[in-house]
Design goal:
The protein contains 4 helices and 18 strands. It is mainly beta. Among the domains are: about 100 residues, Sandwich (Immunoglobulin-like); about 100 residues, Immunoglobulin-like (Sandwich), CATH 2.60.40. The strands form 3 sheets. Strands 1, 2, 5, 6, 11, 12, 14, 17 and 18 form a 9-stranded mixed beta sheet that branches. The longest helix has 18 residues.
Length: about 290
Amino acid sequence: MKNIHTFLLSLVALAFFSSCEQLITEIDAPSSEPQLVVYSVISPQDSVIEVKVHKSNPLFSIVNYQSYDNRFPPVINATVMLNGEGQSVTIPYDEEYEAYRVDQSAINIKMGGYYEIKVMAPGFSQVFAECTVPDHMPPDIEITGTGLTEETGMEEWYFEFRFKDIPGVGHNYLVYASVINYDPWMEETYSYAAFFKQGNPLISDKLNDGGYFNYRTYPIVLQYLDANNVWVSLSLIDDNYFQYAQSINNFQDDNPFSEPTPIFSNIKGGLGVFAGMNSRIKAVPFQ
């Protein structure tokens, strides 16, 4: 629903600016230039380091809302440098993924490690960011229950789990569950999210230091699945990613009367986020 709302609001905005073109030309609005938008989350548990670099759209620029590639085109001629823990690597561009990617063996990401990223591209100001990877692994995931239901007339399955916060205030968590399913008709493997009926996917221990966080998924229809497990991911994330994800959630609020929320960025000279996390994944078999 949020994507539909965003698209409709974009059309309303285009119609508004088209009808008020004369009014806008009489306003002494500040000029703005495109900026580099950098997105990268590094983790010791990942085998590949990936950095996405895009170009922002300045205020009042003409935008093609029918194509994501036109709205936020990737910057393919940037120099991306990652430094940390006495190592340095220049990350090459990978056309297949439209991102800058390198095997993690080129610069081992460590728990508690401090890292810096610099991105330079012709026609843009150089951007810089820094982050420190959390120095703990996230807590263990404890499965507390499973069950079957037929509320919709089809057999559906849900499960419950919890984890205990690491003692000491200042821990942020990202929780995600997904089913990896093979579609024999399309001959494709795809992943889709298993949403939570109970529990927040983005949570801080500020009000629950050392306590348990409890989760329950919405029922998952089993009839058309060619899968044996649901995968639960629990990540301990740094403050950069927590603030960024929180601002994205607030920005995409379904309430049309909510006040605009600025998107958090720790990219100096540009936009985006450079952050660190530690993750663990648990397979929960359908029962």
